[in-house]
């Protein structure tokens, strides 16, 4: 919300917001309001206590002290300690912290130290990359223009002096000069303008420059004078007023002089910063982890009481089983999960930053990128370049004809040389690129009438070779403006208008060209001479496709990512851009803002996945579409770059911008690209899927293995006259497991995982770990049978050291098997394979080593290893068969990870 305007200001105010009561600063300075109260230039200058000559230095200093510097609200990144503390909120980290404290209470110091060390390492790994991303963003904030061309006076009666001053020293009432390429340094009201067009894409999403004019022509609220971008929202408050330019926009062509009406926090652009405080919805990663965490938390909280009660009832044990009960709970918990997750994502984020210049601000956004199955974006700068190209030139009869293009090039060339334009505008540049210089002929420019938003025309007067005493007027501009000045019958004019409309509906921009011959003269040419013209034809333009867009769209489709266009342009323009890139869009796959407005939330959630193009979208439409796609079970990425994209950046699972986006959008986004290029997004999605697949594989393996061990441990605790494993042995086993599991952070996942969006599904993961955990428990119980019946007879289990040693070895070796088989067969050995081999070696060698004796382990007879090998072969065969069956049933979708399609299951 904007600040209310104070009722008055002393000394004539000198502030735009200080003289219009409740109308607000921009309304006071010239924004369109209903009725005859629209202020003129003179009224604006009086209210600002300024003049076309600018302020004096004394006035400027007084106002700077009163209103403050012309700077946006500063977004300060969190400090490293705050990020560290914030990392403790992770559900798994919190559970581990509680288990560590409980272990300390029951004097299990080894377990407590290991757990708390893992918690600290996890928080460091998560906080460090995010802090580094904040520093990178601070560097980007400095890459902006810092000065503005201003005219000020030393004294009231002194002549104004033009000079460059820091942007933050601008105050309301300053007079600034605008030229091609200049950013608009504040909200300004035009005093003079010549051929001025402004890019407002950062504010409104319009993909073409908007014509601006200083004339005091009444403008109804919500209207637009002069040509406008087809499909741009007609109701965006003062953005439609041709007399106003806003901070966050930039000059495309022409020049102008303007008076500053609002600075700093009072600008429209600064108002968008307030949206940064809006709490974002829970991301896909957070939802998934929270679901899995709460499932495990229930088991963890339930397990110790059950162990204590069962041991007390069946074995008459008391508090001495508390450390064992805590060890069982720790055994069920994937204590390395926070470390694995943080390491996977930190490595991927560092690789993206180093090789592709991609900054990941929120580390968990990498998982969300890997889960993205819908990518929403605007076409300009991503699918298309920020420039048009000539498509065709059509004669009056609608056939291909070079003459309209040649005359348009003559007009553009003459305008470039005679008008005060250091560079051609976008359409003129496209025309000149399409025509060889030799084709222009020897047309000497005599005069030009530059484009202005009232006439919507640009006229060049040239001498035509071989026609002495004759000047030729070459006129090009908006179709309606040119046709009404041509000598045409009514039916001819209607037919040409209909043809131009059809071309526009096909997604083309249309320029009309006409000429007229006049006797040579020395007096100035005026708009009154633009009459009785001979219509020459149309020149049509299309947006130039981005060089990498077609290939990247194909790559994204291969990865299961659907691209949807959310644009403020005409539907035909968006469909044309898709068609040029090889993407065919059916008529029913196009929705306009009006269609979206006519649908309820549930209806939009059903219709949005079927649509490809959403045209004439306002910021609110974009946000609603992103939310509808999320509610339909999709993980949504949104690529934006302007203030108008902020609502959608917040509504999506992953907000993505490029580094040249407006500062407020960069602050709001999760991922910042080096360039506005879909290729960078493809790299980011690939990195997200790599890290997500490794995390998923770790979860499948560790949770199924842990569940099997816990089941076996509970059974052994009830069957044996002693604890199935000493606390020191549990700690040593967990340390071995943890060290081996670090390999998952460095593994290369199965290439098939890169071809489908991945999202952790708690229910699917629970089914997987239950099935494979029971299979692991069977292997453990079979080992008990080997120890009991084969080696020592029915009383063999009474030997505590033998049981501890046999089960310790079997646990480590079966864990190694699980790591290899559930990782995926037939793949090139990697870190996980080497870690599994090391784990097997520890399991076989530790009991016979001096360290094993210190832990209470003992050597086992050779026959045990022979029989253990039989059990392990049978277990490996069963595990492989179960894995193949599971993969076949899931159509090669990894257990616990399913494509984000259809409705999101609870």
Automatic annotation (TrEMBL):
Gene3D superfamilies: Calcium-transporting ATPase, cytoplasmic domain N (3.40.1110.10), Calcium-transporting ATPase, cytoplasmic transduction domain A (2.70.150.10), Calcium-transporting ATPase, transmembrane domain (1.20.1110.10), HAD superfamily/HAD-like (3.40.50.1000). Its EC number is 7.2.2.14. It is an enzyme of class 7 (translocase). It catalyses: ATP + H2O = ADP + phosphate + H(+); Mg(2+)(out) + ATP + H2O = Mg(2+)(in) + ADP + phosphate + H(+). It is a multi-pass membrane protein. It is found in: Cell inner membrane. Belongs to the cation transport ATPase (P-type) (TC 3.A.3) family. Type IIIB subfamily. Mediates magnesium influx to the cytosol. This is Magnesium-transporting ATPase, P-type 1. It comes from Streptomyces hyderabadensis. The gene is mgtA.
């Amino acid at each position: 919300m904007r600040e209310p305007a104070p009722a008055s200001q002393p000394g004539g105010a000198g502030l735009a917001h200080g003289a219009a009561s409740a109308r607000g600063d921009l309304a006071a300075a010239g924004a369109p309001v209903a009725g005859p109260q629209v202020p003129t230039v003179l009224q604006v200058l009086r209210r600002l206590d300024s003049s076309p000559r600018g302020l004096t230095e004394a006035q400027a200093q007084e106002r700077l002290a009163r209103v403050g510097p012309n700077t946006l609200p500063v977004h300060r990144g969190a400090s490293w300690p705050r990020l560290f503390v914030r990392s403790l909120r992770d559900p798994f980290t919190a559970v581990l912290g509680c288990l560590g404290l409980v272990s300390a209470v029951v004097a299990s110091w080894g377990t407590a130290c290991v757990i708390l060390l893992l918690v600290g390492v996890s928080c460091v790994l998560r906080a460090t990359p995010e802090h580094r991303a904040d520093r990178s963003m601070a560097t980007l904030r400095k890459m902006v223009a810092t000065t503005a061309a201003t005219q000020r006076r030393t004294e009231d009666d002194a002549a104004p002096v033009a000079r460059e001053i820091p942007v933050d020293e601008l105050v309301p009432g300053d007079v600034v000069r605008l030229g091609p390429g200049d950013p608009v340094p504040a909200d300004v009201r035009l005093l003079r303008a010549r051929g001025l067009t402004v890019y407002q894409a950062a504010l409104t999403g319009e993909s073409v420059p908007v014509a601006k004019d200083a004339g005091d022509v009444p403008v109804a609220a919500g209207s637009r004078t002069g040509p406008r971008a087809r499909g741009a929202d007609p109701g965006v408050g003062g953005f439609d007023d041709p007399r106003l330019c806003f901070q966050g926009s930039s000059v495309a062509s022409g020049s102008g002089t303007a008076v500053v009406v609002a600075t700093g926090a009072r600008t429209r652009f600064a108002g968008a910063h307030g949206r940064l405080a809006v709490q974002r919805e829970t991301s896909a990663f957070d939802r998934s982890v929270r679901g899995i965490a709460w499932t495990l938390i229930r088991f963890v909280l339930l397990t110790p009481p059950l162990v204590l009660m069962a041991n007390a009832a069946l074995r008459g044990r008391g508090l001495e089983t508390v450390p064992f009960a805590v060890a069982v709970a720790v055994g069920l918990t994937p204590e390395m999960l926070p470390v694995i997750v943080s390491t996977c994502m930190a490595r991927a984020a560092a690789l993206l930053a180093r090789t592709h210049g991609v900054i990941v601000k929120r580390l968990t956004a990498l998982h969300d990128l890997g889960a993205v199955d819908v990518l929403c974006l605007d076409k300009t700068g991503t699918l298309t370049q920020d420039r048009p190209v000539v498509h065709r030139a059509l004669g009056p009869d609608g056939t291909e004809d070079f003459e309209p293009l040649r005359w348009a090039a003559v007009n553009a060339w003459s305008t470039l040389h005679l008008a005060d334009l250091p560079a051609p505008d976008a359409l003129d540049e496209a025309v000149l690129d399409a025509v060889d210089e030799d084709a222009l002929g020897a047309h000497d420019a005599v005069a030009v009438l530059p484009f202005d938003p009232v006439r919507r025309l640009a006229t060049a007067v040239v001498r035509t070779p071989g026609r002495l005493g004759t000047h030729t007027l070459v006129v090009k501009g908006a179709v309606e403006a040119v046709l009404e000045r041509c000598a045409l019958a009514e039916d001819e004019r209607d037919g040409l208008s209909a043809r131009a409309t059809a071309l526009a509906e096909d997604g083309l921009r249309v320029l009309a060209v006409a000429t007229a011959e006049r006797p040579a003269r020395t007096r100035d040419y005026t708009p009154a001479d633009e009459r009785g013209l001979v219509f020459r034809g149309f020149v049509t333009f299309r947006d130039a496709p981005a060089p990498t867009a077609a290939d990247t769209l194909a790559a994204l489709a291969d990865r299961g990512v659907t691209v949807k266009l959310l644009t403020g342009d005409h539907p035909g323009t968006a469909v044309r851009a898709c068609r040029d890139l090889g993407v065919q869009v059916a008529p029913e796959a196009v929705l306009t803002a009006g269609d979206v407005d006519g649908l309820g939330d549930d209806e939009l959630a059903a219709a949005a996945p079927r649509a490809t193009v959403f045209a004439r979208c306002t910021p609110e439409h974009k946000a609603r579409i992103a939310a509808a796609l999320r509610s339909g079970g999709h993980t949504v990425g949104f690529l934006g770059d302007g203030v108008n994209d902020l609502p959608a950046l917040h509504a999506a699972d992953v907000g993505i911008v490029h580094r040249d986006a407006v500062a407020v959008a960069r602050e709001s986004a999760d991922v910042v690209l080096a360039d506005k290029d879909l290729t960078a997004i493809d790299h980011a999605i690939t990195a997200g899927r790599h890290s997500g697949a490794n995390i998923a594989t770790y979860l499948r393996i560790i949770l199924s293995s842990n569940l099997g061990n816990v089941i076996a441990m509970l059974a052994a605790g009830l069957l044996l006259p002693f604890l199935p494993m000493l606390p020191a042995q549990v700690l040593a086993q967990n340390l071995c497991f943890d060290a081996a599991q670090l390999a998952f952070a460095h593994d290369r996942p199965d290439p098939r995982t890169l071809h489908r969006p991945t999202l952790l599904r708690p229910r699917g993961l629970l089914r997987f770990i239950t099935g494979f955990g029971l299979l692991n428990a069977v292997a453990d119980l079979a080992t008990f049978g080997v120890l009991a019946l084969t080696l020592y007879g029915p009383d063999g289990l009474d030997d505590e050291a033998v049981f501890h040693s046999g089960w310790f070895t079997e646990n480590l070796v079966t864990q190694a098997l699980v790591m290899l088989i559930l990782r995926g067969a037939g793949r090139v050995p990697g870190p996980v394979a080497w870690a599994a081999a090391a784990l097997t070696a520890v399991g076989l060698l530790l009991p016979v080593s001096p360290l094993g004796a210190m832990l209470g382990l003992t050597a086992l007879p050779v026959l045990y290893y022979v029989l253990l090998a039989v059990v392990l072969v049978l277990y490996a065969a069963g595990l492989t068969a179960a894995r193949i069956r599971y993969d076949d049933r899931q159509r090669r979708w990894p257990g616990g990870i399913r494509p984000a399609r259809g409705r999101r299951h609870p």
